[in-house]
Recover the amino acids of this structure.
């Protein structure tokens, strides 16, 4: 059946897609056309990805460190920060009504009032229970069609759903989400005495136990192009949150040209909102305690967590720091959903952070955590080819006197099997304050993603989680409810739903391969060769077709070597049959070594084509670069291993299938091709012809290449897969490090240019 965009709207596309009657490639094509017709176009040619950090200087005697974005000025300054008093006294703007004068937005954001679901007719209210098991009915294949699988609210409710396209976090005893999931699945006790290795010693008295993060005093200032002395003035909570936001953006494939393509209602690029939950300011207390005249002080308030972070990353969406005690992070998610519904941004980052640094807040079972989600409307995520970890069906917000029923966020019958609350989160990671909400959301997403119920007080061991069924025997998606309430604070809920892949058949068309993918590999994977791979191509083009272009970049050579080592370790199971060395490590690595990345982001390892496409389109092009042309994952593993063993051997070489370049002090784009109007067509012609060697040399010379645009021209789209994040080479930075650092003379001015050359 020939399905065209002019015959369907977003509602019909989503309904058919969830029913399995529309393949993802068709849905992506139609939704892309619909969104392109309804969204403003990017004004002019895309700018190269600029620096996402800026050297900050403080005036004499001033502790308020200023930061300014590098590159073009943002079209609108981030919204002012929400002060603690404001957050408690004023209810956040409801997300169900559009602001007056809101510009036209895609249909996915046009609805102003979500359709509330009826209260489930169950013998007992599932919301009143801490946890409950799924409906005990046999699970099997059911032939469903139409709106039967669109959810309890019907297909119209899909327009109010939001996709979790990126996720990252650090939790007690876990430097990444894979280790955190291991702790949750095994019911591991992460409590310990107060950490003695922090500057100033443990914040807990002897005999008390808490749940703490490793390396809370550490930060990779060089990665973000921040001066070490200026970074030492930042609240460690802001530093941790910035690293996690970057990891979440990379997990979503939104740090390269795909980030620039996210445009706001006024056409401004990089329209991503930042909503941060935070409620403590221990670092300022420590600084005031030891302050002497003439010594710089950290800036007051929480500006570094939202407004300044948005400026450093050059994001043009709204930016808010939220303080509503334990519900801060969940309120931040609620505000992010509202901004997406009103069309104020094309994507939103929401999360929270909590560190216990001052003994005045010491308490037994104290917890620490930091986490962030990247959200888009479901229609936009499908059109953009994003990997969807879970679907956020809706959020509700109520005052303590008049709590909003959880059913208003679309709670379906028979009710969620997972219910994350303040009590369940404290039992796992301690009392994490402002980060409680993001910890609860992350736990729910991990259980949905793995179809496994984590242990609870009533369930001592993990349990497989079959999908529930309706009274008519229809298979329903798994759902999880997050519900937080705080004394004299808001009552906030969020309903999550799994995003199972649509049913496919052997005849299902697969996403087209890039010109660089081998024809034999495509046939082995059951994929149809693309037009560029038809027989009859020239011998030189056929040779290029057998290879793929893998691009890695980092701010410094040390970061690049660490990234290559991490990626090699991650793909090792697909090449050697052995598990990575850290697959079962119970504790994270701390100190100057890189922070570990996820061992398995979301299931099996991707194919070489998907991995290479994600690195090209979803990662920032930083000055230290490595370009590889390989035929399969084993060859990629071998090339990464060789480079890791001797990074200098690849510099400038062309005969070993890889070469590297350091553009920190070199001339960028020596032939000035970036300013020529014919360059885009020239690059597209090289890409269509499979001229990988020429494209590789141009990219290594510093020429900005919009790989996502090249993928779209070849029909492959921009589908991305989760990959390990870039490593951070963290080192301790504290108040005593606020004086200018004594960097080696030959490195001064070269360190940490984390940006794409302009």
């Amino acid at each position: 059946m020939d399905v065209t965009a002019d015959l369907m709207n977003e509602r019909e596309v989503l309904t058919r897609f969830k029913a399995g009657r529309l393949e993802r490639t068709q849905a992506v094509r139609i939704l892309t056309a619909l969104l392109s017709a309804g969204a403003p176009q990017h004004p002019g040619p895309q700018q190269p990805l600029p620096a996402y950090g800026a050297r900050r200087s403080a005036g004499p005697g001033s502790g308020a460190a200023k930061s300014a974005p590098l590159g073009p000025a943002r079209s609108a300054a981030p919204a002012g920060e929400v002060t603690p008093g404001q957050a408690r006294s004023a209810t956040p703007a409801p997300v169900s009504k559009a602001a007056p004068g809101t510009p036209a937005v895609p249909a996915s954001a046009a609805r102003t009032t979500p359709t509330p679901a009826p209260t489930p007719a169950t013998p007992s209210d599932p919301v009143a229970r801490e946890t409950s098991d799924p409906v005990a009915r046999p699970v099997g294949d059911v032939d469903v069609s139409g709106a039967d699988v669109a959810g309890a609210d019907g297909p119209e409710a899909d327009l109010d759903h939001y996709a979790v396209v990126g996720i990252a976090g650090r939790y007690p005893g876990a430097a990444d989400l894979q280790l955190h999931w291991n702790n949750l699945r095994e019911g591991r006790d992460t409590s310990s005495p107060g950490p003695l290795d922090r500057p100033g010693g443990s914040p807990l008295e002897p005999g008390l136990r808490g749940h703490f993060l490793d390396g809370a005093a550490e930060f990779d200032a060089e990665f973000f192009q921040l001066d070490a002395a200026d970074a030492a003035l930042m609240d460690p909570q802001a530093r941790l949150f910035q690293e996690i936001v970057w990891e979440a953006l990379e997990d979503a494939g939104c740090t390269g040209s795909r980030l620039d393509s996210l445009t706001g209602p006024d056409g401004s690029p990089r329209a991503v909102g930042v909503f941060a939950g935070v409620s403590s300011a221990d670092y300022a207390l420590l600084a005031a305690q030891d302050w002497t005249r003439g010594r710089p002080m950290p800036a007051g308030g929480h500006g570094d967590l939202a407004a300044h972070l948005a400026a450093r990353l050059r994001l043009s969406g709204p930016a808010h720091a939220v303080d509503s005690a334990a519900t801060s992070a969940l309120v931040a998610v609620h505000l992010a959903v509202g901004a997406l519904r009103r069309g104020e941004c094309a994507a939103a980052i929401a999360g929270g952070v909590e560190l216990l640094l001052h003994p005045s807040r010491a308490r037994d079972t104290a917890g620490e955590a930091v986490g962030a989600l990247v959200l888009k409307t479901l229609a936009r995520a499908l059109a953009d080819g994003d990997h969807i970890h879970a679907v956020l069906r809706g959020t509700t917000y109520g005052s303590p006197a008049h709590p909003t029923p959880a059913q208003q966020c679309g709670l379906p019958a028979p009710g969620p099997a997972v219910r994350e609350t303040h009590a369940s989160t404290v039992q796992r990671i301690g009392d994490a304050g402002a980060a409680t909400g993001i910890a609860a959301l992350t736990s729910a997403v991990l259980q949905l993603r793995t179809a496994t119920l984590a242990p609870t007080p009533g369930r001592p061991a993990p349990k497989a989680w079959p999908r529930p069924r309706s009274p008519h025997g229809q298979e329903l998606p798994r759902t999880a409810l997050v519900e937080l309430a705080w004394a004299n604070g808001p009552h906030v809920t969020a309903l999550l739903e799994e995003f199972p892949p649509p049913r496919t058949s052997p005849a299902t068309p697969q996403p087209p391969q890039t010109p660089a993918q081998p024809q034999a590999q495509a046939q082995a994977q059951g994929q149809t060769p693309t037009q560029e791979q038809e027989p009859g191509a020239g011998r030189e083009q056929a040779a290029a077709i057998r290879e793929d272009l893998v691009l890695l970049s980092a701010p410094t050579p040390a970061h690049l070597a660490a990234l290559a080592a991490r990626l090699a370790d991650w793909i090792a199971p697909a090449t050697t049959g052995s598990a990575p060395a850290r697959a079962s490590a119970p504790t994270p690595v701390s100190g100057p070594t890189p922070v570990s990345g996820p061992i398995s982001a979301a299931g099996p390892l991707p194919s070489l084509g998907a991995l290479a496409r994600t690195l090209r389109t979803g990662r920032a092009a930083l000055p230290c670069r490595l370009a590889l042309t390989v035929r399969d994952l084993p060859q990629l593993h071998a090339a990464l291993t060789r480079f890791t063993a001797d990074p200098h051997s690849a510099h400038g070489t062309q005969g070993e299938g890889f070469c590297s370049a350091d553009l920190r002090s070199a001339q960028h784009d020596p032939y000035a091709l970036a300013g020529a109007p014919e360059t885009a067509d020239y690059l597209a012609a090289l890409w269509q012809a499979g001229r990988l060697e020429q494209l590789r040399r141009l990219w290594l010379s510093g020429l900005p290449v919009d790989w996502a645009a090249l993928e779209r021209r070849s029909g492959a789209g921009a589908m991305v897969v989760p990959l390990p994040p870039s490593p951070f080479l963290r080192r301790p930075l504290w108040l005593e490090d606020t004086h200018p650092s004594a960097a080696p003379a030959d490195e001064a001015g070269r360190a940490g240019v984390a940006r794409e050359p302009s």
